[in-house]
Write a structure and sequence with these properties.
Elements (H helix, E strand, L loop, with lengths): L2 H25 L1 H8 L3 H8 L3 H8 L13 H7 L6 H22 L1
Length: 107
Amino acid sequence: MNTEQILAEIREANLSYLMLAQSLIRSDREQALFRLGISEETAGMISSLTPAQMMKISGGNTLLCRFRMDDEIVWSLLTSHGKSATNDSVHRLHANILMAGRHQEAA
């Protein structure tokens, strides 16, 4: 994959992310804040973006979204290979609880 392809995919991911975020915020603001891991202020800005502004913002060469699971514990829980289906559900629940706690800390 060459540089131009990578940049095009970043722009596409950015636009998709902004469109999804705006849709979530407008339909259920509280869920959007939690699921996106953003502040009320950021949600207000995203919600008020026009299509032209979204196109301009998404056109950059840096991803607007990032992984929220930035530690080994959460990744380990989410990728528990070789575990039973029951344990998988418990691990995902545990990972969600950890990420929810981090969202509260950030807010």
